[in-house]
Each structure stands twice: as structure tokens, then as C-alpha cells.
Specification:
The structure is a single chain. With 197 residues, the protein is an alpha+beta fold. It folds into 2 domains: 82 residues, no CATH class; 74 residues, no CATH class. The chain has 6 helices and 8 strands. Strands 1-5-4 form a 3-stranded antiparallel β-sheet, with no helix packed on it. It is extended and about 75 Å long. The chain starts with a strand and ends in a 21-residue tail after the last helix.
């Protein structure tokens, strides 16, 4: 969705600001209720999403139900914006933790399966090209990772051209958890490292 309609903008400033967002690892909270937060209120209209909330990942983990809402424009040329928590009542929780569960010690010999040290290390290990290719070829080709509509059939058909970029992307993400600046963090899909998920 565009963040501006009307006259152009300073691309250099936009790139600089987006670089700041990536470098500081802050997140632009999605806006609900309105598309834009500012208008020039003139005959040649310009609409832009100027008013935003940028939060750290720590803040988001502390407040997972946070929402950014735009209210209708009144006298000002800016929409008021609110940041708050969305409280949804889903009914009673399907899981309860009872203290008496702690009274009996867990006996691993009785059938509670745990991962070996080797299995734990394998989960944190780097992906091999072969693993990535097996994961891609074993998935349904009609499934798409994100809203761009590029499904796995496209990736399979063009693997020769995109293999290096694709594997570099995965390696970079695995190394430090960061995403290439041209991608949005919401387009990530987790592919399990198991034979048959």
C-alpha cells in the first residue's frame, strides 16, 4: 500500500529514514482505520502517511496486542492517531496450569521424549543448499510465501537464476536475524527442517 498519493517525495530522505529504521531495528506498527494521516487540504490533493509509531522489538514483545489506530480527520489536516492494546475476549483459556503438576517429578525414562545434544545443535546449524532445495521441491508448488503471488512453482522453475540470491538471503537471515532491506518482515515463512512436517 502506498504511503503517499499526489506529488513526489525526496527519495534520498526516504532511503535515509528507512536505513535508520533497519539499523535501529525498530518496527513501523501497521495503521488501522485510515489509509493516510495527513492531507494538504488543497485543490491539488496530496495525501500521506506521516504520523506513525515506531517501536522497538522489546516493546512489541512486552505488548504483543498493541495496535495503531487512525481516527477521522476533523479541523486539522492531520488524522489523530492512537496507540493502544487490542483486548479480544476469546472465551475461557483452553489450557490451565495446575500447581499439582509440579508435585510429581518428570521421569524421562517413562516416555517423555527430549532432543539429544546432537539434535539440538542441528536445529541451530546453518542450512545447506541441498536442504533448502529439498524443502522447496517437497512443498506444494501452488503455495505462495507472501502477498506477492510468487508461488513455489515460480521458484522451482527459476531456481537456476535465483538460487544464489535465495540461499544468500537464508544465510544472512540465519546469521543475525536481519532481513534484506528491500523486503518486509511480514513476508517471511518458516520452512520446517523435517522430512514430513
Amino acid at each position: 500500500m502506498p504511503e503517499r498519493i499526489g506529488e513526489g517525495c525526496n527519495i534520498g530522505a526516504v532511503r535515509c529514514f528507512n536505513g535508520f529504521i533497519l539499523q535501529t531495528k525498530i518496527v513501523d506498527i501497521p495503521l488501522h482505520g485510515v489509509t493516510f494521516t495527513w492531507s494538504n487540504n488543497r485543490e491539488k490533493e496530496i495525501w500521506a502517511r506521516l504520523d506513525i509509531f515506531l517501536l522497538s522489538l522489546e516493546m512489541l514483545s512486552g505488548f504483543p496486542k498493541i495496535v495503531h489506530k487512525g481516527l477521522p480527520m476533523s479541523l486539522s489536516n492531520h488524522n489523530p492517531i492512537l496507540l493502544g492494546e487490542m483486548n479480544v475476549d476469546w472465551g475461557p483459556s483452553p489450557f490451565r496450569f495446575y500447581n499439582w503438576w509440579l508435585e510429581e517429578k518428570i521421569d524421562n525414562e517413562r516416555g517423555v521424549k527430549t532432543l539429544s545434544l546432537e539434535q539440538k545443535l542441528a536445529l541451530e546449524g546453518y542450512f545447506r543448499k541441498e536442504e533448502v532445495m529439498v524443502a522447496i521441491t517437497s512443498c506444494d508448488g501452488n503455495k505462495a510465501f507472501g502477498p506477492d503471488g510468487l508461488n513455489l512453482n515460480f521458484i522451482k522453475a527459476n531456481w537456476g537464476e535465483i538460487e544464489q540470491d535465495f540461499t544468500n538471503f537464508i544465510k544472512e537471515f540465519h546469521k543475525d536475524g536481519s532481513i534484506v532491506k528491500d523486503l518486509n518482515h511480514t513476508f517471511i515463512a518458516i520452512v520446517p527442517k523435517v522430512g514430513k512436517p
